[in-house]
Design a protein that fits this description.
The chain has about 375 residues and is mainly alpha-helical. It has 13 helices and four strands. A two-stranded antiparallel ribbon has the order 1-2. The chain has a two-stranded antiparallel ribbon with strand order 3-4. α2 packs antiparallel against α8, α4 runs antiparallel to α6 and α5 packs antiparallel against α11. The longest helix has about 35 residues. About 5% of the residues have low confidence.
Length: about 375
């Protein structure tokens, strides 16, 4: 590119590429990496949690979430001590500001784990696709973000596909489904609160994970004690089973990774993109759930619904990437040094024309 040097002349300088081409547009590498990290980690943790909750019949959701939070705090502090990540040391002021986010997180995760235990994976992922609707409403009400017609249309296609996919297999158990719906509400509130937090204390992804997890631990202790999980865990039949212990350990490690990826993805893109990424991941989760847990039999209705959902997700992703690329290109054009000489030339022409008009009027 061209850049001004000290004497005002333009010189050629090398600038590294800012993005990678997707669908013919340059997309931020940071955004793509964040989306992939969130998709992979959230897919893995759903499968491990389903194994713990269903295969090993672990009915202690608050304790599982507590293990996740302790893992997040330990890994965050470990990486910080090694100098691999940086975030501010513990401050009460920051913890108070993060407290509402932590409360939403606890409610979101605990209710989500209950929902994952009482419904099978395909139905869980089908109903979880409704979270995009709640986020769309929440961003409009609380952040003043007016949704575009493309967002509304693509999300409508995703939701329509979700309804088709689940139609043949949904047995109307309102109590089980209500857990997933409430989980969607708290997911929307949680993701929107992350965006609100970006306007407050300046914390990076790992700083948010550390404070969010640390503040959540006391709440989870209270919940686990009040609902009897602290006492019942000692009688759990698989407590000393090696397979269960390995699955629990992997789930805790993934909890740290998916938390960091969630903050990263939401900060690098937006809450709605994070949700749609999760919906795309849920399509793969649904297929894997069919074969790993035997939750549902494939049929034409399900395949049709998944295809419609994939189309809607790709449509939304394409619209978002082209919109972001258009904004980035417009900003680059406005800040280009080549514009300055042209602007000066235009102003000179206007001055000459104005002078000639004044001269004509005096004559």
């Amino acid at each position: 590119m061209l850049q001004d040097n000290a004497d005002g002349k333009l010189k050629s300088v090398h600038k590294p590429p800012q993005g990678i081409p997707i669908f013919g547009v340059d997309v931020s590498i940071n955004s793509v990496s964040a989306i992939l990290a969130y998709a992979i980690t959230s897919l893995a943790i759903i499968l491990f949690n389903k194994m713990i909750l269903s295969v090993y019949r672990f009915k202690f959701e608050a304790l599982l979430t507590l293990g996740h939070m302790i893992s997040c705090v330990v890994f965050s502090e470990m990486l910080r001590a090694m100098g691999l990540i940086k975030y501010p040391s513990f401050k009460v002021e920051i913890a108070k500001k993060v407290a509402p986010l932590s409360i939403l997180f606890v409610l979101n995760v605990v209710i989500g784990l209950i929902a994952l235990r009482v419904v099978n994976v395909p139905i869980f992922t089908t109903l979880r696709r409704l979270s995009g609707l709640f986020i769309l409403i929440g961003e409009f009400v609380f952040l003043g973000m007016k949704p575009s017609s493309v967002k509304v249309a693509s999300l409508s296609v995703i939701l329509f596909g979700a309804v088709i996919a689940g139609y043949g297999d949904l047995a109307f158990d309102w109590l089980s489904y209500s857990y997933v719906i409430v989980n969607n509400v708290f997911t929307a509130a949680y993701l929107i609160m992350i965006k609100k937090l970006d306007q407050g204390p300046k914390l990076d992804a790992f700083g948010k994970v550390f404070y969010n997890s640390l503040v959540a631990i006391p709440w989870l202790f209270i919940i686990a004690y009040c609902n009897g999980e602290m006492h019942a865990i000692m009688r759990y039949e698989f407590l000393h089973d090696t397979g269960f212990q390995m699955a629990f350990m992997f789930s805790c490690v993934l909890a740290f990774m998916v938390n960091a990826a969630t903050f990263w993805c939401t900060s690098a893109t937006n809450a709605l993109t994070t949700s749609v990424t999760g919906q795309c991941k849920n399509i793969l989760t649904t297929f894997m759930g069919m074969f790993l847990f035997g939750d549902v039999r494939p049929n034409n209705t399900l395949i049709t619904g998944l295809t419609v959902g994939i189309f809607g997700s790709v449509w939304f992703s394409y619209a978002e990437t082209t919109k972001d690329a258009g904004k980035r290109n417009k900003n680059l054009e406005q800040s280009s040094p080549l514009k300055r000489p042209l602007a000066v030339a235009d102003q000179s022409i206007r001055d000459i024309e104005a002078g000639e008009k004044v001269k004509d009027s005096t004559d």
